[in-house]
């Protein structure tokens, strides 16, 4: 059984936020009005965090794209009273929207602040309704939502491989953010496959993980150069 993970090369990331837009379009993430933004109720499954390195005047700005970390030891799963968030067999931290009661224990227990409560009924301009992805459900008001590594794409890739009587191979399944990145800074694959590129990069000397000292065991790795570790 694969254990899906991601590697992001911070030396390639330009902060263009193409991954953010691709994620929003792929997963039917609702727009946030200026009013909601002022209340800090923006929903964005992928975010890009700017970080300043060095001291003035020798400053360098870096960008850290942040999807859900899909932790191997997810703190959000431990506190959900109804089992609406859980880790599946392939290591993905899934969200059952129809089971979520909106208590937000999981959002409070996520150290990465990457789970979002849907405060309002999602609406889109009429001219954009035909552009919604039919493979992704529309989340109702009052539930928690988050990055799924575009799990619906995995389902399609698995069905195609089954129809062709073969196993999934590297590159069959990639999330929208990986596909869209113009500098190819994001890699995706099976962390348990020693021959996969993402596994090799995750084991390399440039790799580190955010807040890994907390013991969450995130499956999103970052690459950098020198001694910089976020």
From TrEMBL:
Domain 4Fe-4S ferredoxin-type: from-to ranges: 4-34, 59-90, 91-120
InterPro entries, alphabetized: 4Fe4S_Fe-S-bd, 4Fe4S_Fe_S_CS, ET_IronSulfur_Cluster-Binding
Molecular function in Gene Ontology: 4 iron, 4 sulfur cluster binding; metal ion binding
Alphabetized UniProt keyword annotations: 4Fe-4S, Iron, Iron-sulfur, Metal-binding
Matching PROSITE patterns: 4FE4S_FER_1 (PS00198), 4FE4S_FER_2 (PS51379)
Keyword Aminoacyl-tRNA synthetase: no
Pfam families: Fer4_11 (PF13247), Fer4_2 (PF12797)
Keyword Iron-sulfur: yes
PANTHER family for the chain: PROTEIN NRFC, PROTEIN NRFC HOMOLOG
Annotated protein name in UniProt: 4Fe-4S ferredoxin-type domain-containing protein
Organism lineage: unclassified sequences, metagenomes, ecological metagenomes
